[in-house]
Sequence to fold (435 residues):
Amino acid sequence: MPVIVNSFRYSAIVFALAASTASHAQPQLPPPADPLALGIMQGFPPAADKTVTLANVLRYPSGSWAFHNMRQLVPNVSVWRGDKGPSALASEARNLDTLVVRSVDTAITLAEWQKSTYTDAVLVLHNGKVVYERYYNGMNAQTPHSMWSLTKSMVGLLATVLIKEGKLDPNAKIPQYLPELASSGWADATLQQTLDMTTGLQYREVFTDPKAEIFQYIIAAGLLPAPPNYPGPKSMLEYLKTVKKDGEHGEGFRYKSVDVEVLGWVIQRVTGKSFSDLVSERLWSKLAAQEDGYVLADPVGSQITSIGMNATLRDLGRLGEMLRQDGRFNGQQVVAKEVVDEIRKGADREKFKASGQALRAGYSYHNNFWITHNAAGAYEMKGLNGQHVHINPSAGVVIVKLSSHPAGETIFTHVVDQRAFEAIAKAVGRSARAN
Fold:
């Protein structure tokens, strides 16, 4: 029987996370505000109504403070940047604030787009050079920000590396690596189906329905306090064993964070290393990141591999630039070109249609990346509340946008975000040609 979370206790969080993924109706949003100006977490101690806790962390404006201070709220493990100092990012600054972004029936400037989409920081790289960089709401270049589901792409990238190295078999059934899940919904699911989220599971990531399984997941992750006398699992690995099958695997894409928690478990089991160590050894140290990142941990210390990583704006830019350059960065091949080729090829676009995401028509979802299949060959990492790493190989552009949008699902700003990304790529490319 599913565990039902009390709808009154969590109604504010339900609203804050997202409106229904089925309706995509735009909720009524509060005006963008600086959390420091509002007095959020100011004083010793802060006023009761200005204090951020796990009970209100996803409710705006609490999130505009919390998303770059999560290490103060949740147990976490560092992702070491290495000991060689940060890799260079050359600068070729341009003021793009007045660049016009044309959406469906409006035209706004890039600065207005940032404000209206609750931006905390944004970075634009062109051919590896920083052309535009902005910070808001108390952030700076040294501040790690919640990546939320950008973390999924980190797991997908590492899994693809292990597949190409022959350490994982995409056609293997999940219990081959995790016998603990032999009685779960993943009993007959393949690794590739789990990577592409085409598993048929009894799990709904619908934030407006307090009965949806997403709330059991968040409680298990330690990111939401359990109600009194809560009978459900209170740690991630315990929860994954309870997820059941509901439909056939491989039929269609449906977004499910639990798939990536399973993948995170797989890559840790196969390598004998923690997720944070894998990111450090395979990525952060090779990129020569500027700052340590960190990964949130559940109540028993298991790392949250679907939504748990936090990193700085520029270090995510380094990651995106490595992917844009076919796996090469900082004078070395960080991941094999065939790894990036595998990700960029995407998956079955017909299966993606099963998700009902009409605004992302033409997309596919492959190895935890969003593949546009557009003429520019763009592909993306996306996360709750407006986190983006947008890679446009044709234009030589990488865009990182970190946000604290009150409506969690990025579909609500998808159209204007894509128009902004396109306008940036066009403007930067035109400027390069002129020079």
Notes: The mean pLDDT is 92.
